[in-house]
Design a protein that fits this description.
The chain is α/β, with parallel strands linked by helices and 224 residues long. It is built from six helices and nine strands. The strands form two sheets. It has a seven-stranded mixed β-sheet with strand order 5-4-3-6-7-8-9. It is globular and about 55 Å long. The structure holds S-adenosyl-L-homocysteine (SAH). S-adenosyl-L-homocysteine (SAH) binds next to strand 2, helix 4 and strand 4.
């Protein structure tokens, strides 16, 4: 690495530390493993080049194809709610930029990130590979149906607004596993945690949120 690259790397690291303090710790994110993963993952690498300056912005940022990289706080909150442990197998629905998949891989999870838009999936896969996140796998497809090939999952995290918890996710979830998803209308959702206990789903609602719509068979464009 050249010296100016090192200087940039330090600047980005400092920016992530500030982001973690001001946006995450200040709003109540407590899980140290989540905080260290977010400080470790080079978020700017997942931004389109013209958006790099917005890498640590406190909101969602466009990544092309009318999609966004989620707000850092929403990523931290949902990953915290997922209570992921090293070695767990996690399905991420709506991989987008690949950033959240990197955070989960950094925490030691084996991640299957499914993304509907091929151009985004290809870009995410290339970035994850370049950064050496071998535990993050990107698949092109309709994640509203889950991804049966790698099931069952210890956890399922959904990064797009779902009209309901998809039956496919419930089916592909291990006993004791949890689903974290924004569930609600197209314009407003509630961050929902559903745990599988003796085959039954125990559902709890967290804060309100706004995500881009989940499309596909169990999403918003089913047969309309
Ligand atoms: N986790 C992402 C945020 C992506 S935004 C990140 O860290 O950048 C939500 C993504 O869900 C979009 O990229 C959108 O294309 C995708 N999406 C919407 N419906 C989907 C579906 N049925 N299956 C897979 N991906 C879907």
């Amino acid at each position: 690495m050249r010296e100016d690259d090192n200087a940039h790397a330090d600047e980005y690291l400092n920016a992530r530390r500030r982001m973690a303090e001001r946006q995450l710790v200040a709003r109540g994110i407590k899980d140290e493993r989540v905080l260290s993963a977010i400080v470790a993952v080079p978020r700017h690498e997942f931004m389109p080049p013209e958006r790099r300056a917005d890498a640590h912005f406190d909101g969602a940022v466009p990544i092309g194809e009318a999609q966004t990289i989620s707000q850092p706080y929403m990523v931290a909150l949902m990953v915290e709610l997922l209570e992921v442990e090293p070695g767990q197998r996690i399905l991420e629905v709506g991989a987008g930029s690949g950033y959240q998949a990197a955070v989960l891989a950094e925490m030691g999870a084996e991640v299957y990130g499914i993304e509907l838009i091929p151009a985004l999936a290809k870009r995410a896969e290339a970035v994850l590979e370049r950064l050496g996140y071998e535990q993050a796998h990107i698949i092109i497809g309709d994640g509203s149906k889950g991804y049966a090939k790698a099931a069952p999952y210890d956890g399922i995290i959904v990064a797009a607004a779902a009209p309901a918890i998809s039956p496919a996710w419930v089916e592909q979830l291990s006993e004791g596993g949890r689903i974290v998803a924004p569930v609600g209308s197209l314009h407003h959702q509630v961050c929902t945690v559903a745990r599988k206990v003796k085959g039954e789903m125990k559902v709890r609602e967290d804060i309100g949120c706004v995500f881009v719509p989940l499309l596909g068979e169990h999403g918003w464009d089913r047969g309309v």
